[in-house]
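Rotation project, supervised by the postdoc (A.L.). Task for the rotation student: set up a whole-complex structure prediction and record inputs and outputs verbatim in this book. Inputs entered:
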Amino acid sequence: MKKLIAFFGLMISLFFLNNNLLAQDDDLLKLISVDKPKKEIVKNAFKSCRVINAHSMEFVRPGTMDFRILHRFGLLNQGYKNLYGLDQATMRMGFDFGITKNLMFGVGRSTVKKEVDAFIKYAPFLQATGEKSFPVTFAIVSGITIDGMPWADPIRPNYFSSRLGYYFQTIIGRKISEAFTLQVVPTLVHKNLVVETNDENDIYSVGVGGRMRLSKRISVNWDYFYVLNPLTNISFQNPLSLGFDIETGGHVFQLHFSNAVGMNERAFITETVGKWGKGEVRFGFNLSRVFQIKKKNLD
Amino acid sequence: MNTKKLLLVVMVAFSLQSNAQRFFTKGGEIFFNATSPASPEKIEAVNKSVVCVVDSKTGAIQFSVLMKGFEFHSALMQEHFNENYVESEKFPSAVFKGQISNNEIVNYNKDGVYTVNVKGKLTIHGVTKDVESNGKLAVKDGKINASAEFNIVLKDYSISIPALVAEQVAKIASIKVACSLELLKN
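Outputs recorded:
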C-alpha cells in the first residue's frame, strides 16, 4: 500500500515538475485569452468614396473632409488639333464631410450648367466580420441638384423649383476579397422640369461598380449605369467609366476614361451622349485630398 | 521510499511550482513615433490593448499587439498605416518573444526597481528580427510596472515608404512600452 502511495506521489510530483520545466519554452501568450472584438467593420472597400462617377460603399472617416477636384476633358476623337480633348475641360469642385462612420454629406459645384449639388449618405448596415458579421454594406444616398443657368425662356413664368433635380440611391456593396469589391446601385433621378413634354420626370437606372486592386496603391475601377427609361430627345448612351485609382500617400488620383461629362448624378445618369464605339470618350481625373478637421487625442 | 521522503519530494515539487509566478496584462501601452524633421504633421500612434506576459522564474517575456489597435491623430494616417505600411489584414499582430537576460537580479516578491536587459525576437509585418533593449521592472505591492524604450529600423521589417513621401516619414521609429502587470491566477 505504501509503495502504491509512493508511486502515485512520485507521479504527481513528476507531473508538476514536468509541467514546470515544459513551461519554460511555452507560448506564454496562449495563457491569456484575448477577447476578440465581436464586430469588425470592413474598411477600404474603395480608396475613396466615389468609384469614379458613382458614390461608393466607402465613407469619409468621421472628423475628416475630403476635398475633391474633378476634371473631364474634351472628346478623345477630336485628335491632335484639340490635343485629344485636353484643350477643353469642365470641372466639379466638392467638399465631403464625414460625421460618423456611417454618415456623411457633401456639396459640390460643376461648371456644366453652373450646377450646385448636395447629398447626404447614410448606411444602416456596414459590412462587418466577427461574431456580429454582416455580408454587405447597405447605404442610402439622397441628393439634390440646382441648375444655375439663366432661364431658357425668360418670358414665361419661371419658378425656382424648376431648377431642382433629386436623386435617391441605394448602394449594396461587398468587399469580396482584399483585392476585389463589387457594388450594385439602383438609382432614381427626378427632375422637376424636363425639356420636352414626352420626357419623363423620373428616370430609373441600375448601376454597377467595382474595383480590382493591382497593388497596395493602385487599383482598376469601373462603373456603369443601365438606364431603364432614358430621355428620348437626345441620343442617350449608358454611362461607362473605366480607370485607375492611384494613391500617393496624401492624395488619391482617379484617372479614367468615360463617355459621361456630367459629374453629379442628375447629369451623368440622364444626359450622357458619348458613344464608346465612336471614340466619343473623355479623359478625366478626380483628385481627392482628405483633411483631418477634428484631431484625435492620443491620451 | 518512506512517507517522509515522499512528502519531501511532493513539497519540493509544489514549491518549485509556486515559484513560477506569471504576471500579465491585456491593457499594456505601446507608443511609437516616426516623425521626421520634414513631416508635415506628427506621425505617432498609441495602442492601449497590448498583451504582455512575464514568467518570473524563467524570465521569459512576451508581447502581442494587434496592429489595428494603433490610434493616430489622423484617420487617414491610420488607414495608410494599416492598409499600406504594415498591412494589418495580412499581418494582424506584432509579437515579441524574449528573455530577461539578468532575471536573477529581480525579486518579484519584494518592492523595488530593477534595470533589466531584454533580448528576443520581434516579429512585425511578417519579418522576425533579434532585438535587445534595456528596460525597467518596478515591483510594487505584488504588481509590476514594466517599461522600455527602443528604436526599430522600418526597412528591417520590409515596411516600404513610397519615394514621394520618403522624406516625410522617419526611417527609424522610436518605441515606448509601458505595461502594468498583475499576477496571473490559473
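Student's summary: Chain A touches chain B through 44 residues (CB under 8 Å).
Supervisor addendum: The two ends of chain A are 65 Å apart (CA to CA).
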